[in-house]
Structure formats: structure tokens, C-alpha cells
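Predict the holo structure. Ligand: iron/sulfur cluster.
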Amino acid sequence: MIFQELNDLYHLPLFDLIQRSRTIHEENWPAAEVQLCTLLSIKTGGCSEDCSYCAQSARYNSGVDAERLMEKCDIMDRAKAARENGSTRFCMGAAWRGVREGTQRFEQVLDIVRDVSQLGMEVCVTLGELGPSEAEKLKEAGVTAYNHNIDTSPEHYPNIVTTHTFQDRLNTIRHAQDAGMSICCGGILGLGESTEDRLKMLEVISEFNPQPESIPINSLMPMPGTPMADEQGVDVFDVVRIIALTRIAAPKAKVRLSAGRTHLSEEGQALCFFAGANSIFYGDKLLTAKNPTIEKDLALIDRLGLKPQEPNRAQPSPKSDEAKPLEPQIC
Ligand code: SAM
Ligand code: DTB
Ligand code: SF4
């Protein structure tokens, strides 16, 4: 959807905007379902990049220490627990600039993905930059979606990150799409951007061909020690407007109400679900930052008369149809 259309919609009275997004939501999705996704940081901290919002960059004294890649058995335990808790998607994040074919760590990630994909959940990974061959290997191993956010507008991006470019992000997204993976691509509100920047970000995201399968809308979690530590929070109605607009611009994408829910009231979150959000990260930790507890989220979902979404059979992992019992593993 082009900027002018997004701009016109954005400036409608809030209830008019929500009425439109709600209609589109109901035409495309079961009205009462919310997908529960579990996030796991499989490699935390020590990242070479300078993304100014991120506690995992090695450049800032955020108190997040660099860790090694988690052991596969531990990851499998967490993935099985996520499935038991009702998650239909398991998202693994690594604080890397990117991955390269032929390296030991990439082979380890492929091995992890092969096993996690046997569990029947959607498998998403976010590992930074990918070339065409890395993307193909991940797809073959069983990744269903690759998360790579553009985070903000092309114009504002250099104010936020200097160690890679907006075009680098687009190239990775292209490689993931060419390899046949779905794309999970969204951004962050609250990086000192203007409304225009937010709309330009949505213009880029909604003009992808194909459109992303899911669009995470994060609000900045200001992390101590990062250049963004003192940024002001985002107004709840700005979040709702962006969620509504995302739903209108990408009717078939899951709109994921992502980081920042601990700063939203339950009423604010309810309005986001009504406006078109139909997915959340579930579990009391995001990658390093806080998230509402499972108990709190399940209670909210219940009080709103929503229900957790069933597994997405339309996009099974390549291996999930032929799922076989996993070998017992000794860690
Ligand atoms: N290194 C990979 C990358 O940059 O794509 C994967 C991990 S990175 C932490 C994934 C996404 O988390 C970022 O693109 C950003 O949108 C989001 N994120 C990171 N720190 C955040 C924060 N403090 N508040 C909100 N969102 C954040
Ligand atoms: C996304 O858009 N948000 C998630 C997931 N994709 C990887 C990450 C949020 C990170 C919040 C900050 C932290 O936990 O350090
Ligand atoms: Fe590294 Fe990703 Fe954090 Fe940027 S957002 S510093 S690339 S982990």
C-alpha cells in the first residue's frame, strides 16, 4: 500500500480507522483467535552490530553478557515445553550479524532446526544476514519463517544502525523469500521516528512481493546502557493506529503485538487485538527483556473470550508431515 493511502487512513478518527481494520480482520481471520509464539534466545549478547535499541550489541554496557550457542538438548527441552504450553510457533533468535555456510555454528543451527521442526510447530529463526545458499539450507532444514525486521523507515535507519544498511536488510529478506521461506518482517515504534517514518516503514513492508506472512509490531523496550535507554514510551493510541493500519495494508499477514506489552494496560492490549493483532510472544522473557507471564496472558485471553490459535496446517514445516519420534538425547 502506498504512502499516501496509508497516510490518509492513519489520520482518520480512531474509531473509523478501527472499524475498517476490524472489517478486514473478520474477512480474513477467525475473529477470536490469537497465535501464541514462544521466543528463545539461542545465542545471547556479544553482537558486532550497533543497533542502538539492542541490549545484545557488544558496543553498549547493557549488562547482557555474551553467551555461547545453547546446547541442542536444552533448546529441545524449551521447544517441547513451549508446545505443551500451547505455542504453535517456536522462534529462535541469535545475536549475530549473520551466518555463513560452512561454519561450525551454522551447521549447529541447521542441526537444531532439523530437530525442532519435528515437533510440529512453525519454526522461525532470526539469525541476521543471510546469503542465498544459507537461506536454502535453512529452508531445507525445516525453517518455516525467517524473521528479519526493517525496524523503521529507510530514511531513519542510518540514525539507528551504522554497521549495516537498510539495503542489507532488504537483500536478506529477498534471499529468504527466494529460498521459499515465509518472511516475518516488522519494526519498532519509539526509536525517535516521526509518524511519517512509521508509515514509510509500513509502505516498504506491505509492498514486499509476496507480503510477509507475519508482521511483528514492537514498541521499544528501553534497555539500560543503550543509546535509546532514555527514549519516551509510545502512546497507546499510536500503537493501536499502527496495528490497525498494518491489518488493512496486509490483510493476510499475522499481525504480532510484540515487544512492549509490559508497558501496555490490558485494555490497551484488548484494543490492539480488536484492531487486528492476532499473535503475541508468549512467555515471561522476550530475548533479554521482560514480557507478561504465561498465567497473565492466558487469563487475559480468557477474559476477552479469545482462544489460542490452532497450529497453522497451511504452512507446515517441510518435515512435520513425516514427523517421526525423536531419538532420546542425553545432554
Ligand atoms: N540479530 C538478528 C537481527 O538483528 O535480525 C536477530 C535478533 S534482533 C534482537 C530481532 C529484533 O528484535 C530486532 O530487529 C528488533 O526489531 C527487535 N528488538 C531488539 N531489541 C529491541 C528492544 N529493545 N525493543 C524492542 N524491540 C527490540
Ligand atoms: C521481533 O520482532 N521481536 C522479537 C523477535 N522478533 C525476535 C524480539 C524482541 C526483542 C525485545 C528486546 C529483548 O528481549 O532484548
Ligand atoms: Fe545484533 Fe540483531 Fe541486536 Fe542488531 S538487533 S545488535 S544485529 S542482535
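The beta strands are 33-43, 89-94, 122-126, 145-147, 182-184, 187-189, 214-219, 254-257, 279-281, 307-308. The chain has one domain: 3-306.
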